[in-house]
Amino acid sequence: MIRAIISGGGTGGHIFPAIAIANALKAKVTEMEILFIGAKGRMEMEKVPAAGYRIEGLTISGFQRSFTAKNLLFPFKLLASLMKARSIISKFKPDIVIGVGGYASGPTLRIASDRGIPCLIQEQNSFPGVTNRILGNKVQKICVAYEGMNKYFPKNKIVLTGNPIRRDVINIIGKTEEAYAYFGLVPRKKTILVIGGSLGAGTINQAILKFVNDLRAGDSPYPENSGIQLIWQTGKYYHEKIIAAFPDNFVSTDLEPRKIENLMILPFIDRMDMAYAAADLIVSRAGAIAISELCVVGKPVILVPSPNVAEDHQMKNARFLFDRQATLLVSDRDALEKLGPTIIDTLADESLQMTLKKNIADLGITDAADRIADEALKLIKENE
Questions:
Q1: For residues 145 and 288, is the Cβ–Cβ distance under 8 A?
Q2: For residue 67, what pLDDT is reported?
Q3: What is the CATH number of domain 176-361?
């Protein structure tokens, strides 16, 4: 029996890759027991059991970069988490410990590495967070999604694996006509997909609302027959506010979402494969997992990085693609004025679209979870 601990979480961007790695390990080794370690009160405590895995929680939380009362409790929470991690590891006796980022991975991998247990971390971003930069000197293997990470980690430990992605959402071949029907859109009409994450992105929503209103205006600054339709994921926090801006022309039933002219406005998209299949152009935030999916999908993309993430990760991720002519980039502060014109200019430039498609697709990796699982199993074998 091989025993593995996978630690981390906090957001779906960390939890999904963790579960994907667990599934890949189970697929490769019949006799495999996997335990997750997360942070109490975070979403992994719900999502991991729902995926069929056991999880233990630590009391750890993040250290605020500005002074707050919460920081006074941080040393005590860290000490308690280290003690709890030591207890879990002693009882479970793992053959490998894998960190995927998030609060819980620091204490867990610190204890495991000090005990000589083989350790691996998965770094999703083009610029690693503080925890993984510290752990980089202690672990045996570092699986990364971007080239050039030897600036931050020992070169001999780095393996380019990519980020695990949801296979079901990138399976879009041959689904275009079905996707138009699914969203009730006009076949072969230029379709823009707008996604700001499951909770939504306020700036993107406001910029798209301005863009749509400009398109509808009698004195629109855009070409008269722009021929555009949108699939717009507002996020649950913004949905009611956005649809309230369109008080007329509703088509609404209990069974289908509200549809306004050439708009399909949704709080959340359950079938991302359909959305990707229908899209001619995608507007998105620049989270690591979102970018990994977009690279495999291979459609033209405009990235609007969130400024509200630690260490400006999203801008650094977006810059990596932008510098390789694999995406267009609109800053959050410029989105209200520049996003609409950028959409129109891109849809009018077939040559630019082809360049973006080719360059972003060249960066796509579909089997990252398998690659990471293979690296973990190699470390176990080397330690026997």
A1: yes
A2: 55
A3: 3.40.50.2000
